[in-house]
Automatic annotation (TrEMBL):
One of its GO terms (molecular function) is tRNA binding. GO terms for biological process: rRNA acetylation involved in maturation of SSU-rRNA; tRNA acetylation; tRNA wobble cytosine modification. The lineage of its organism: Bacteria, Pseudomonadati, Pseudomonadota, Gammaproteobacteria, Enterobacterales. It holds the Pfam family TmcA_N. Residues 4-154 form the TmcA/NAT10 N-terminal domain. InterPro entries: P-loop_NTPase (IPR027417), TcmA/NAT10_helicase (IPR007807), TmcA/NAT10/Kre33 (IPR032672), TmcA/NAT10_N (IPR013562). PANTHER family: N-ACETYLTRANSFERASE 10, RNA CYTIDINE ACETYLTRANSFERASE. This is tRNA(Met) cytidine acetyltransferase. The keyword Mitochondrion does not apply. The keyword tRNA processing applies.
Length: 354
């Protein structure tokens, strides 16, 4: 297929430029599945497949995706034909290496907004799935307005735009980047207390935590929602890496100079507060992009308990180039950069039926 040849060439260009892109397949189930398999065969990679149903190898359900945070993959499929889990979609985008495609499977384009969304059972009080037309219409506007995303619809001619070449990108060598180096100096001399490092995905939070552990003179314990998500942290911490699951750590009498909590927002706040209170110094790392009490909510709720919190932020992407099209699209589609999210609402809040 000429389409696959063109996509193969574009993939090589994306890898040189250090970016990722979204490719939407919208159509009937059989058509989407067939074209996804052709993409997988044509473009070498891991091809992690996120779906409520085990349709392919390397499958993971949206609810289990949290266990993969901190790991990296080349190419992935997000099956939203029966429901769109926004939090899982955002998390998946952060696991993809430079030069990757995120393939989004959607129902027939004209039928999408009228189709019940199975994911609505997680947050709606209705006994059956409901349609989410306003959200779907918003996503459609974002996808059609994004010149960097590729929309491939069944029974529509496939058109691949010409993308202006970008400057070649050179991946990080493993040594601390200038932003990380500055934070390491401050953390190394931090008095007893709690520090929080927040950032969008791909900024090197886990690498920074591992670099800190490898440099401190004392002992550190690492905890996280899942050990599998600490692969990057462990790589940088080296032989000083020691992991204990949150519940096991709480039940033990383990002591250390530092407690390092990776993806801290994904741990229940009461459990996290008990853990933090047991160690002289704690480093919390988490993304600021997420839903359901994570991300911004973590800063507004949990971190507000510590008036003398040392708060740091990483802004420069490390795992992909600045201006990555996939990151930009996900942020716009899921409204991650709205400045209203950085402030706690003030005054009386009234919720009424409409």
């Amino acid at each position: 297929m000429a389409e696959l040849t063109a996509l193969h060439t574009l993939t090589a260009q994306m890898k040189r430029e250090g970016i990722r892109r979204l490719l939407v397949l919208s159509g009937e189930e059989g058509w989407c599945f067939e074209h996804t398999l052709k993409l997988r065969d044509a473009l070498p990679g891991d091809w992690l497949w996120i779906s409520p149903r085990p349709d392919a190898e390397n499958h993971c359900s949206p609810s289990a995706l949290q266990t993969l945070l901190g790991r990296e993959f080349r190419h992935a499929v997000f099956d939203a034909r029966h429901g769109f889990d926004a939090a899982a979609f955002a998390a998946l985008s952060g696991t993809l290496k430079a030069g990757s495609w995120l393939v989004l499977l959607l129902p027939v384009w004209e039928e999408w907004e009228n189709q019940p969304d199975a994911d609505s059972l997680r947050w709606s009080d209705c006994p059956d799935p409901i349609a989410t037309p306003h959200f779907v219409q918003h996503l459609k506007r974002v996808l059609t307005a994004d010149n960097e995303a590729i929309l491939w619809r069944q029974n529509q001619p496939f058109s691949l735009a010409h993308f202006t070449p970008r400057t070649d990108w050179y991946p990080a060598t493993g040594a601390p980047q200038p932003e990380q180096q500055q934070l390491l100096k401050q953390l190394m001399t931090m008095p007893p207390g709690v520090a929080a490092v927040t950032a969008a995905r791909g900024r090197g939070k886990s690498a920074l935590a591992g670099q800190l552990i490898s440099r401190i003179a004392g002992r550190a314990i690492v905890t996280a929602p899942a050990k599998a998500s600490t692969d990057v942290l462990a790589q940088f911490a080296g032989e000083k890496f020691r992991f204990i699951a949150p519940d096991a750590l709480l039940a033990s009498d383990e002591q250390a100079d530092w407690l390092v909590v990776d993806e801290a927002a994904a741990i229940p706040a009461p459990l996290l507060h008990q853990l933090v209170s047991r160690f002289p110094r704690t480093l919390l790392t988490t993304t600021v992009q997420g839903y359901e009490g994570t991300g911004r909510g973590f800063l507004l709720k949990f971190c507000a308990r510590f008036p003398h919190l040392h708060r740091f932020e990483l802004q420069q992407p490390i795992r992909w180039a600045q201006g990555c099209p996939l990151e930009k699209m996900v942020s716009e589609a899921l409204v991650f950069d709205d400045e209203n999210f950085t402030h706690t609402p003030q005054g009386n809040i009234v919720i009424s039926a409409f």
